[in-house]
Amino acid sequence: MATTYEAREIETDIYKFWENNECFKADAKSKKEPYSIVIPPPNVTGVLHMGHALDATLQDILTRYHRMRGYEALWLPGCDHAGIATQNVVEKQLAKEGKTRHDLGREEFVKITWDWANDHKGKILNQFKKLGASFDLSRARFTLDEGCSRAVKKVFVDLYNKGLIYKGSYIVNWCPRCQSAISDIETQYENEDGKLWEISYPLKDEMGAIVIATTRPETMFGDVAVAVNPNDYKYKDLIGKKCVIPLTGREIPIIADEYVDKSFGTGALKITPAHDPNDFEVGRRHNLKSIKVIDEQGRMIACAEVHPELHGRDRYDARERTIRMLKDHQVLVRITDHPHAVGKCQRCNTTIEPLLSEQWFVKMEPLAKAAIEKVKDGSIKFVPSRWEK
Ligand SMILES: [Zn+2]
């Protein structure tokens, strides 16, 4: 007999015993009071880490405790497909072999992505078993199972028919390489040695100018206002007046908004709602239209607002050319070093282009209202109760 405890031998047999005897299988027809936990499904992008082990142990404790107290206890396991994130890791894997998804073609790429997902699903569930998880494997789900997919479609159509889902323009993190909107969690911020360019916007019909500071001069063609802080003494007299965008001569208003930091740059910002999420919000507050000047490929759009020399040019090329033209017109006042965080696509590290895009939205207010009522009348309880807010 072994003198030390061999977890591998002993625990494998115990788990096998539990499985063979269906110890964790919940009976839907049971007369006992039900107690169930649906696992927050781990992504198949990777395997379980220590955080999952902690989380799973807590769920296991609760499930086992209630099972022993005579409840019909169900802990329902599963994994999440994680959508774009899984495509992302598979593409990174391919990149190591010097290939892209386009080399494989759609069918082959979908196939190897499924292989990846199935492989990780198996590994994840096995890791849970090693933790002694008392979940009901006969009910394991994957969020791309036919049943789950059908449920998503049904809910989508139902919400659409109720007018709770609609299409609208909204600023998104766009990756010009992936040709896809990227969620906030898939956007990584990296510090870059950027520059801050100070550009002089002449006032309309009078002498003088207002100098704005920007990290992205190429977006100036999409400006719809210059904004200053309402409490900024030095710009008090300019609020409500108009200035002119250099190089193209389009007139835009000078507005006041609390969002502007008096101490940043010159204290005056150009507002480009179509290509900056903060500007998008400022634009909404002041009812300003958005002018999109960069397309989904990251190229300058050939529209009336963009200087003709830049039409169709890549955003970085356009930046260089814009700076040169501003210098030639003697409206580039100052250039300072400005290290700042730049959003990158987690999939391919391309710099994100915030841009306006047609997106689906869910009207949350009526849905949230019903949920809040259920919390208030006690049907749903938060533990600890401070999360009820
Ligand atoms: Zn990308």
From TrEMBL:
Single GO biological process annotation from the record: valyl-tRNA aminoacylation
Pfam families: tRNA-synt_1
UniProt keyword annotations, A-Z: Aminoacyl-tRNA synthetase, ATP-binding, Coiled coil, Cytoplasm, Ligase, Nucleotide-binding, Protein biosynthesis
NAD among keywords: no
Compartment list: Cytoplasm
GO molecular function (one): valine-tRNA ligase activity
InterPro entries in the cross-refs: aa-tRNA-synth_I_CS, aa-tRNA-synth_Ia, Rossmann-like_a/b/a_fold, Val/Leu/Ile-tRNA-synth_edit, Valyl-tRNA_ligase
Gene3D superfamilies registered for this protein in UniProt: HUPs, Valyl/Leucyl/Isoleucyl-tRNA synthetase, editing domain
UniProt-listed Enzyme Commission number(s): 6.1.1.9
Coiled coil ranges: none
Protein name: valine--tRNA ligase
Gene Ontology CC: one annotated term: cytosol
Residues annotated as domain Aminoacyl-tRNA synthetase class Ia: 14-388
Superkingdom per UniProt: Bacteria
Assembly behavior: Monomer.
